[in-house]
Amino acid sequence: MILRIKLIWKRSMENKSVLEVANVVKTFGGLKALNNLNLRIQEGTVHAIIGPNGAGKSTLLNVCIGQLKPDSGSVEFGGENIIGKTPYQISQMGVSRVFQTPQIFEDLTILQNVMIPALASIDGQFKFNAVKDLDERHDVKELVLETIEDMGLSNVMSDHAGAMSRGNKRRLELAMCLVQQPKLLLLDEPTAGMSRADTNQTIEILKKIKKGGMTKVIIEHDMNVVFSVADRVSVLAQGTIIAEGTPQEMRESEIVKEAYLGGAKI
User: Fold this and answer.
1) CATH number 3.40.50.300 given to 1-94+184-266
2) Which whole-number Å values give the CA distances from 171 to 56, 167, 185, 215, 246, in the listed order?
3) For each successive 10 residues of the chain (266 residues), what is the average pLDDT?
4) Do 209 and 184 meet the contact criterion of CB atoms below 8 Å apart?
5) pTM of the prediction?
6) 194: which residues sit within 8 A by CB, 6+ positions away?
């Protein structure tokens, strides 16, 4: 599956922006969660967004997937304005998101969980009855099984999702996103709550996905994750981007150290 994604995306990568956020403002009860925020995500890159709690990171992702409508500003995906579109419509355009808390079907098996979004991306709607017989859907069977294998879940794919560890639930949700072969993958703290062993395994999975060239935005507090996989880093504070550059530039930035870590060494 990783190779398939790689072939798809190498055809289209032309060093252009896939997501552009311009002058976005989002207010909650008088508090500006996003304050004239501007952000450009380059196609084929891994773009990390870091910042202290309350900086507006999750609000930004919620605006990008249509869960929140900004008070003003624009968000363009692939050159098309997506403000006012529903999360479903934006998903069908090729945007997938991994949430802080895994969004999975706990009463279904891992295999069934991955089948649902795979079928939805092809058929344009969820068909729960279609998961009863995988062999009848040869058009998605190979992709589903490859995706599960890539996430290291093949040996438990018949288990119910609700019984899995938190680390495996996060990888399952990632599989549910990847099987849709999105143009843009948004990951909201993909290693939150994981043990160090699970985090390290997730880093290796993210590195493998990175080789495929899929555009990804990662919100993450673990700097080891950020510096291991990111091509570019934006620092968000008080609802606006205060610094942006390569991981090394952000590691050395005094502005970043002061705003994000209180002057501590990154």
Assistant:
1) yes
2) 25, 6, 14, 18, 27
3) 44 70 95 95 95 91 94 95 92 86 85 86 57 63 90 91 88 90 91 86 88 90 90 93 92 77 49
4) no
5) 0.84
6) 166, 167, 170, 202
CA distances, 193 to each of 156, 198, 209 (Å): 21, 9, 21
Go through the chain and tell me how many residues it has: 266
CA–CA separation, 30 vs 18, rounded Å? 31
First to last CA, the chain: 35
Contacts of 174 by beta carbon, 8 Å cutoff, 6+ apart: 98, 151, 187, 190, 205
SS (H, E, C) 180-192: CCCCEEEEECCCC
CB proximity list for 118: less than 8 A, separation 6 or greater: 140, 143, 144, 147, 179, 180
| Pairing assessment for the beta strands 17-28 and 80-81 based on DSSP bridges | unpaired
Rounded Cα distance between 49 and 68, Å, is: 19
DSSP assignment letter at 200: H
**Whether 33 contacts 27, CB under 8 Å:** yes
Q: Of the candidates 53, 69, 81, which has an alpha carbon nearest to the alpha carbon of residue 221?
A: 53
Q: Break the chain into its structural domains and give their ranges.
A: 1-94+184-266, 101-181
